[in-house]
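Changelog entry: the Coproporphyrin III ferrochelatase record was regenerated in this release. Current contents:
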Amino acid sequence: MTAQAFHPLDGVDDNGRMAPKSYDAIVLASFGGPEGQEDVIPFLRNVTRGRGIPDERLEEVSHHYRANGGISPINAQNRALKAAMEAELANRGIDLPVFWGNRNWAPFIADTLQEAYDAGHRRVLTVTTSAYSCYSSCRQYREDLGMALVETGLDGKLEVDKVRQYFDHPGFVEPFVEGVTNGLSALRQKLTDSGETDAPIHILFATHSIPTGDAEAAGPRVNGAADGGPAYAEGAYVAQHLATAQAVLDRVPESAGVDWSLVYQSRSGAPHVPWLEPDINDAIKDLAAAGTKGVVIVPLGFVSDHMEVKWDLDTEALETCADLGVLAERVPTPGTHDKFVAGLIDLVCERTVDNNIADRPSATKLGPWFDVCRPNCCANRRGPKPTVAAADSTVGLPGTAPAS
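Regenerated structure tokens:
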């Protein structure tokens, strides 16, 4: 890897904002998923690489993919999102091509960056399908981009930046406002139809569980925010979800007086390693025991209805509700909602010289989040790797110009 001299925050103001640039392409980066039964185990090997998990164990956890023909919905959803972004760019008269790459399945990020470079692009801006701050939803993307630059030999030739985490951008929040409003209405109608007009209801904001160690390391922390940025004792991942949930409820008058909580799902890994709790199914059981008759399930941590939503919520959580006699409504994810797609393009325009949007909206007091992540933000507890878009990056650094 080419050594590069730089100032860690060169070109970044006190609020973590990078100066606008003349980007010539957009990369939509996502998790990826299998597209057939033969893809399932190779895909899971990619997801768990470096952990030494045998294929027999991977087969045990593959049931939700197997039950869906070995196909994850995520790739089709990313194709639809890419097309929607291209349409929004065209509607605004913005001439930026959109490339798409995945971390764990074809098209892989390294191939996508090579494709963009071969097409003549030299400065690309990445939009990921993860809205919050933690290792797996931010730094790991930045590591994969950094490693891809090294692996392809494009370090120093292709400049790669990334838009800010957008957990509280109105384009992400407003689709959930619409969903919670409609979900409450539908649930109350179900309860009325069943003769439970005044029955207790609860709103469950669901997100992917992560190891508590990763949660504590997410975002600027009390010990680690040397640049004076905000610190969150419980980690930014939890703080951002709680703040975004409150922002949604503040915009839904019909939620007044309704109890709510943040719950987790999709836990994996060794049983002895603590992960964020409560699990959504345990929470539903506790609510049912306390007399709750209906729940609105809000997949707040997710951009689209991929496998964790379709299986863990639409299958397992709804089955738990049915078994306990609890009525339920599941709110849609943003997907290709017009406001979400427009919000993603607004995030791009925050960073571009042309069509620039100087105002950076945020629906909570935590935002707008940083363009360039703080030192040690969402640290890789397994050891550092080359990253992009971070003050402690070793590749694709702010202020370094790509070769022509």
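The radius of gyration is 21 Å.
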